[in-house]
Structure formats: structure tokens, C-alpha cells
């Protein structure tokens, strides 16, 4: 592989050129990818990458559930979102949703004001912040998981007011709360993606929510009613009916067998990190919204032992999926393309002419060697 400024020459392309095994929407190509801020051309021939030792060039990772990293939490406000977007970019995440915690309205407003600035202007060296994932406060107080106890019913007026501070692209809602089914419909009709999560709802509640426009499920299997033969619960609704759902593949939140069951059931299952301030940091105590969490042995927990987000990064998520038996192309779609599709982003999550030059280069052991966000090369010294 080469990486350098192409003067034009016989190919007629300017900007940066990368060479290797390129994963396109049509399959693997052995050849050259040319780009500046966007991909200008891909040249080459179809290939089975098993037939050579060249590096892999994949779409940049897209993470729709990011609470923190580098010691910072989205709820901190200020420059926290830029610090978080920088550490995740160094692990291959080229775009992300800043994800909030259940909290008083004043805390949410502070966090979203900071996120709004980051959405409008991407700082050099950071992932693109596409918008916000509101994970609460519109959840069931009986299924908080690691969320603080500030749950409340949703209103379209309140969500609209918050979205004026920063674009709310995704929102987690417990559909069994009185009035929420109609709110799900209104939010979906307004263009937001609504996911079912932090819920005590039944299978029937899940089916109804999907019929009202809900598009998926938040961290499948976690903080929702489980599957039983005569009470299939929210997990059953997801496995039977979902087209999209997010899942945390850190191998702590979900057993590998459950991941494989979900992969067989949900066509566009996509992966998120649910990462916290402890991501990229040593063991110790950190904040998750208004709650203290402890990082130890790769996990993040509340004092009572409840899992409280993760320290997962998307490059490790990719390696975990391949370790479970997925081929690299399928794993790539689940850390990139399907998340983009869920948000309706046709110019991200794929390597094709005209798309944003969001891409990662990996060696044959799936270690990152290069990351580009909208054509800007990200330094990987801290990976």
C-alpha cells in the first residue's frame, strides 16, 4: 500500500491515494482509492483478499451510542465532546452521536448546547459529531440500568426544544409509559429515529411501538424485558420483528451465543460502544452523568456491580465480531454501513465515489494503521 499525494499522472487523480484491498458496496476490489474531502475514484479489479497480503481499506466506523472517553463525559458540557470525539477518532470512529444520560432538564440543556457547537464545526483531529442520541429521560424508572433516577414522560414540545440546541438524531423511549406510543409516532414523523430501550414493556408493547414508527432497539438484551417461552418480552419483539437494532459487542454486556442469535434474526444489527469517560483511561473512578462508576478488568460498573457502559472502542468491536466468526465484510457493515443506513446517511458508511472520505486502513491482524475523517488524516500515536 502507498499513501501519498498523487500528482495526477496517468490516472488523472489528485489528492491522496491509498492502495490495498478496498471494501466497496459491490465487494472487495484490489486497487487504488483516491480522495480529498470526498472519495473521487476507486480503481481496480474484484479480488478475494485472502489471495494476497495487502492491507484492508474499510469505511470509517460509525458509533451511534457514545457517552464518553478520555476522562470526559458528554454531560460535562464545555469542550468534553471534542475530547471524546478525538479519542474515538484515534480508534477509527469517523462519525458518532453524542449520547446523553437521564438527567434534569437543565443538565441536558447544558450538554446539548456544547454538542450543538461540535455538530456545526468539527475540530481538527476529531470524529464528526452527527448529532445527539437522547438516551433518556424518557425511559421506565423501573428499568434504569446505570441511568440516574430522573426519568420522566416525553412530550414532543420538550424534545423539539432540546433539538433546537443540537440536532437530536436518535432517541430512546420506553413505549409502555402512558402517552409514549403517540409520542413515538410524532417523533418518527418528524424525522427522528426512535429506539426502544430501558423498558419493562412486553412483547406486545414492542410490536405496537414498531407499528407506531419506532425504528430499532437500544443496546439489545440490556435494560429490557428478556425472552421466555410464554412471555417473549421486548427481546422477543426485537428478534421477531426488528430490522435495525444496536448491540454492545464487548463480550461483557451480551454473551457470544446471544450475539449470534441476534445476528441470525435482525438483518441490520449494528454495533455501538456505549463508551464512558473511562474509555482510553487507566482503572479507577469516573463520572457517568451524575453517577460515579469504577473501571476495573476492562469493565465499568456502579458500586452495586451493575454494568455502566463500557470501555469498548469500535476497532475492538470489529475484531470481536470477526473473532465470533463473521467475515470481515459483514463485520464492517455492522460497525459502519448499517448505522449510516439507520440514520439515512447515504454519503457515509461506504466507500464509493462522492462519499465522504471517512475510512480506515487495517493490517492483516486488523490493527489500525491509518484513519481519515472527511479526508483529514488522524494521528494514532495514542492508540
TrEMBL record:
It holds the Pfam family Amidohydro_1. It comes from the Bacteria. InterPro entries: Amidohydro-rel, GlcNAc_6-P_deAcase, Metal-dep_hydrolase_composite, Metal_Hydrolase. Residues 56-377 form the Amidohydrolase-related domain. Gene3D superfamilies: Metal-dependent hydrolases, Urease, subunit C, domain 1. The keyword Hydrolase applies. Coiled coil: none annotated. Keywords: Carbohydrate metabolism, Hydrolase, Metal-binding. Belongs to the metallo-dependent hydrolases superfamily. NagA family. This is N-acetylglucosamine-6-phosphate deacetylase. It comes from Collimonas pratensis.
Amino acid at each position: 500500500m502507498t499513501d501519498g499525494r498523487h500528482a495526477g499522472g496517468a490516472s488523472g487523480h489528485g489528492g491522496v491515494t491509498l492502495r490495498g484491498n478496498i471494501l466497496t458496496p459491490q465487494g472487495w476490489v484490489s486497487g487504488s482509492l483516491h480522495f480529498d474531502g470526498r472519495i473521487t475514484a476507486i480503481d481496480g479489479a474484484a479480488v478475494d483478499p485472502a489471495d494476497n497480503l495487502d492491507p484492508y481499506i474499510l469505511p470509517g466506523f460509525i458509533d451511534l451510542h457514545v457517552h464518553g472517553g478520555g476522562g470526559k463525559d458528554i454531560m460535562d458540557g464545555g469542550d468534553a465532546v471534542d475530547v471524546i470525539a478525538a479519542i474515538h477518532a484515534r480508534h477509527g470512529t469517523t462519525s458518532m452521536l453524542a449520547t446523553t444520560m437521564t438527567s434534569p432538564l437543565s443538565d441536558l440543556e447544558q450538554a446539548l448546547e456544547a454538542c450543538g457547537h461540535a455538530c456545526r464545526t468539527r475540530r481538527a483531529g476529531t470524529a464528526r459529531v452527527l448529532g445527539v442520541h437522547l438516551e433518556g429521560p424518557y425511559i421506565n424508572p423501573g428499568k434504569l440500568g446505570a441511568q440516574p433516577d430522573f426519568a420522566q414522560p416525553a412530550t414532543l414540545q420538550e424534545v423539539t426544544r432540546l433539538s433546537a440546541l443540537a440536532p437530536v438524531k436518535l432517541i430512546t423511549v420506553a413505549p409502555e409509559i402512558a402517552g409514549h406510543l403517540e409520542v413515538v409516532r410524532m417523533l418518527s414523523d418528524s424525522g427522528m429515529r426512535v429506539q426502544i430501550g430501558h423498558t419493562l414493556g412486553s412483547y406486545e408493547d414492542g410490536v405496537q411501538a414498531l407499528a407506531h414508527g419506532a425504528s430499532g432497539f437500544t443496546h439489545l438484551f440490556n435494560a429490557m424485558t428478556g425472552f421466555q417461552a410464554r412471555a417473549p418480552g421486548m427481546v422477543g419483539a426485537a428478534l421477531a420483528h426488528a430490522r435495525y437494532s444496536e448491540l454492545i459487542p464487548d463480550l461483557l454486556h451480551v454473551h457470544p451465543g446471544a450475539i449470534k442469535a441476534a445476528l441470525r434474526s435482525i438483518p441490520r444489527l449494528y454495533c455501538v460502544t456505549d463508551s464512558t469517560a473511562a474509555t482510553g483511561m487507566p482503572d479507577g473512578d469516573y463520572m457517568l452523568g451524575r453517577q460515579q462508576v469504577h473501571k476495573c478488568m476492562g469493565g465499568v460498573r456502579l458500586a452495586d456491580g451493575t454494568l455502566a457502559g463500557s470501555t469498548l472502542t469500535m476497532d475492538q468491536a470489529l475484531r470481536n465480531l470477526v473473532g465470533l466468526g463473521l467475515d470481515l465484510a459483514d463485520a464492517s457493515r455492522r460497525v459502519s454501513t448499517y448505522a449510516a443506513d439507520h440514520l439515512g446517511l447515504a454519503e457515509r458508511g461506504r466507500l464509493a465515489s462522492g462519499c465522504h472520505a471517512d475510512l480506515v486502513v487495517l493490517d492483516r491482524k486488523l490493527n489500525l494503521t491509518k484513519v481519515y475523517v472527511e479526508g483529514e488524516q488522524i494521528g494514532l500515536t495514542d492508540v
